[in-house]
Amino acid sequence: MADAIIVGGGLAGLAAAAELGDRGKKVILLDQEPERFLGGQAFWSLGGLFMVDTPEQRRMGIKDSRELATSDWAGSAGFDRTEDAWPRKWAEAYVDFAAGDMRSWLHGMGLRWFPVVGWAERGGSFATGHGNSVPRFHITWGTGPGVMEQFERRVREHVANGLIEMKFRHQVSGIIMENGAAKGVAGEILAEDSAERGQSTNRDVIGNFELHAPSVIVTSGGIGGNFDLVRKVWPRDRLGEPPATMIRGVPAHVDGRMIAITEAAGGHVINGDRMWHYTEGVKNWDPIWPDHGIRILPGPSSMWFDARGNRLAPPCLPGFDTLATLREILKTGFDYSWFVLTQKVIKKEFALSGSEQNPDFTSAKWSEVIRQRILAGAKATGPVEAFKQHGEDFVVADTLGELVAGMNRVTGTSLIDEAGLQAQIAARDLQVDNPFSKDAQMMAIHAARNYRGDRLIRTAKPHKFLDPANGPLIAVRLHILTRKTLGGLQTDLDSRAIGADGEVVPGLFAAGEVAGFGGGGYHGYNALEGTFLGGCIFSGRNAGRSDSVA
To answer: What HEC string does 254-313 produce?
Structure first.
């Protein structure tokens, strides 16, 4: 009999399995998808990791510390509920990990990082509020596949030596409980499917299964691919009504089905209304999964307008405060907004989230990075230029009049008024002539360029948008993009599930996104980015190292 059954072959499941294998434990790893889907959502990610006071930061002139990171996390999380006790402990433990042995442990495993550290979620409010005070987003060479391959390598070594057995197309429908303790799982064997990674697969049942082990670890992911669940738990009191239309930032198999199954076994979901969806989504012109969307990771220079062409007020600036911007967009009564920018901005500042949208970083070859990002002249990277050419949300024009006509054509409305848009852009352009400004966005641009990483590769030199020499002009319609579940199954620091009565459920564990990345929501209300993969690794590692497992 196995010592543990892991439900879910994503990054958290791989981390847990690798650690258990290292301890000589026998493990059965189950996943409802085919083997080529191993790694789950981590495969599609940019591979960013939140780490603190690293050699990469120090080489870029960044002064970071555990104390600063803890302050930033607390200001972003805004923990304010009784049930936040365990999430708070997880947050403190993760920051200790991120400022401690995280990098050296991963480096020893084989991970490497791009030398320029990214500055995500900059906040734009007070020092006590949301946001990263300094850049902490470390892009892994090889992006998401580069992160997961090292954990997959460790797991497959244990498969080869007989400690781990992987069973794919095994869909769990129940956790077997005996005298209040988890003792195994039962479910259906699904028919094989030839779909490519990320595509929807069949749910044709060809048999049933029942497996037993004294420990069951649920690492099945969140709800971002399930619009019905997203709308069901949407925090209407904080964000307003959910958008009428959304696009998916994750495959459809990120369906959240194991959450209710684990609750039925005694697990307890907390903070289910906390979630993380992006405001800079564009429809993928070459989709892999249904309603496939891609997030633009913007630099700070694009002007942001609502559906009627009114400029969004700070802190609703590109890359500064995701949920504040989401709330403001939904207040307008529309579920989309607009970026307006120039070719100079798209060249230097546009990145697309995802391993498949960054083939140079994914290749882990400097020659490809240099070819795509330095030797391309005035052009942006190949994937960005492809979206500019083929994407239905992109409008490119030589004059503002043509741009406005294109924006209205995309939406089938006449909401954007050329004179109103021109006045706002012209006023912004008047702020460019000096290295100081009263415009908050211009201040932010100057501040960003004080960081050498932004000045080198991420933030365009301030320039006038209406000057034809800086053209063409570009507008991008932005959709709400579903992504991460911030709440989840409550767990202690060993990833043991905690029931509604506050007691540990014997034999039941949860890790990764299904556990809110630790504790039932270690982010609180806001994420600092790089903390999703990091949380999967950390909580999966804790589960695999727990003395309570078998």
So the answer is: CCCHHHHHHHHCCCCEECCCCEEEEEEEEECCCCCCCCEEEEEECCCCCEEEECCCCECC
